[in-house]
Amino acid sequence: MPPARPFHRPARRYLAVVAAVTMAAGLLTGCSDSDGPEGSVDAFLAGWRSGDLTPVGFIDPTGARISAEQVTDELRALAGELVDTPPELHRSGDAEITQDTATSRFRVTWTLPGDTRWEYDRELRLRLSGDDWQVIWSPEVVHEQLTKGDRLGLRRTVATRAAVLDAAGEPIVTPRPVVRVGVQPSEVTDVRKLSADLTAAFRAVKPPITPPVDLSDLPKRIAEAKPDAFVEVVTLRRAAYDQIRSRIYDLPGTKYQSDELDLAPTREFARALLGSVDPAQADDLKAHPDRYVAGDLVGHGGLQGRYDVRLRGVPGVSVITRRPGPDGTLVPTDTELFRREPQPGESLKTTLDVRTQNAADAALRAEKRNSALVAVRISDRAVLAVANGPGAAGMNLAFTAQVPPGSTFKMVSTLGLLDREAITLDGRVDCPKTFTVEGRSFKNSNDFELGSVPFRTVFARSCNTAFAALAPQLGPDGLAETGRTLGLEGTWDLGVEAFTGKVSTGGSATEQAAAAFGQGTTQVSPLAMAAATAAVARGRWEQPNLLLDPAPQQRAEPGPQLRAESVEPLRTMMRAVVTTGTGKALADVPGDPVHGKTGTAEYDDNPANTHAWFVGWQGDVAFAVFVEKGGSSTDSAVPVTERFL
């Protein structure tokens, strides 16, 4: 057999030569000059944005060849913090050609945080090599001030947060002194005794800190902290700290830091309505990664939350350069390539009156149950106070509670009966101990009965059985129709969430009887009842005002003018509630005469479980007071009203 031919080695040499030639060709790849240098320019701009520069050939300023992969890596490195948001790139006209070189201008547009646009023009130089235009690459292609090793970086400047203003145009929330109470682990001698002593001191603060300071985890926090750390326990307003300074200052391990925080006049001041401003939480950062960064202050709840974008303004942003330091960490340089100044926020102007709000908060301060008080000026519909208790509770029950109104709704029922001429001020009405409708027995508070008495007495003494008997005179929809004339169930635009009520309609005879004195399926909020009461005092319902700037754009239309023949007797009866009826504890309140109506509302199937109400007005101020699970109104809502007035 003849020996085999040694063909395999030459073949390997041949393939290696072909591969080398192919690789060299790859380094020289460019766009043909058949379309001029513009083809290479467009390919480079498209590749910069997409991250694929393989169709483009590159050389450095000395003429040495560079691979597309190397340029891609340098572009990504230069982009730094902007690497995930490549710029928009547009060629500006045709290139200028001089012999074998060309220059093409293009526009670079980066989108920075806050939808800020950073735009500038650059030049791209090219050199003709054979039939191909090669891009001359250097960091200056990205920006004229960049050199090798630079990285683009961002620097944010926080904008000045605007204030929520009161009716006088003064900021409600302003910088106020606070003291941060903390402990240093290395100096704590007895952590359990320290916790007990601090807890006792915090409980002595007046008004009480709500919710109370919980130190149950303090031993664990101290054990996990560094020996010289400042473990914060609580931040107190300076006035609260001064009350207990002598009790806590010398406790072993305690440390104190003075500071200022943006705070309202008091801890309770319209807290649920205003909301709070706190460091950005994880949920904030997740929901709006383009808006917030760690450490930002963010509005939560109430007006601060709803109008956070308006109030916080637009942070400033700068594009800077960074370079690796000796340890490889990027260090900012003094080079700033772009700056947009921060835009301060825009304030909110409210109708809140500081004196009235303080009175409302003080009136609820001693109430340990959930409670609310809304005050509305009758003449111009301004919401003067929105208070929620206890303390700085976060729920805005004043605007959003959906609860039965109890006997305060006899104000609405009576207006409807007067409109239909079913009753008169002094017409006699029976007030028995009980009244039965379709097998259901209705009774009065404490089982009282009055017999046959003038209707004004029925109203002043709040006789449920008389209203249950009169319910058919209203018809299935009469109560709801009358309620709507007082703004209930309306679509209001106050600039913040509010429940305007839902009035029983079209129910059975039993439901109609219950609804006539505020039970059944009727539900209201304190705001809705305060506005309805103001309508009775004014003679016409008009939507309350809370925000003056920005003013709501879709205010509800005013209601019809109330019939004088109906509203005048109703006002007389509401005055009698205070002079001779269930609200007579208010008869000696200083100032103008008080008109009103008490209310006790069952909220489940147990008659012993009741909410307490009082609605009324004095002078130019209408108001509604609500105490959740408050029992008898004379024991809870009326005393709150007395403290307020």
From TrEMBL:
Which terms are listed as keywords in the entry?
Answer: Membrane
Q: Where in the cell is it found?
A: Membrane
The segment(s) forming the NTF2-like N-terminal transpeptidase domain are 37-150
Q: Give the species.
A: Micromonospora fluostatini
Q: Which residues form a coiled coil?
A: none
Recall the taxonomic lineage recorded for the source organism: Bacteria, Bacillati, Actinomycetota, Actinomycetes, Micromonosporales
Location, primary (coarse class): membrane
Q: Does the keyword Membrane apply?
A: yes
Protein known as: Penicillin-binding protein
Which part of the chain is the Penicillin-binding protein transpeptidase domain?
Answer: 374-637
Which part of the chain is the Penicillin-binding protein dimerisation domain? 157-322
Tell me if Transport is a UniProt keyword of this record. Answer: no
Q: Which InterPro entries does UniProt cross-reference here?
A: Beta-lactam/transpept (IPR050515), Beta-lactam/transpept-like (IPR012338), MecA_N (IPR007887), PBP_dimer (IPR005311), PBP_dimer_sf (IPR036138), PCN-bd_Tpept (IPR001460)
Q: Which PROSITE patterns match?
A: PROKAR_LIPOPROTEIN (PS51257)
**Family under the similarity heading:** Belongs to the transpeptidase family.
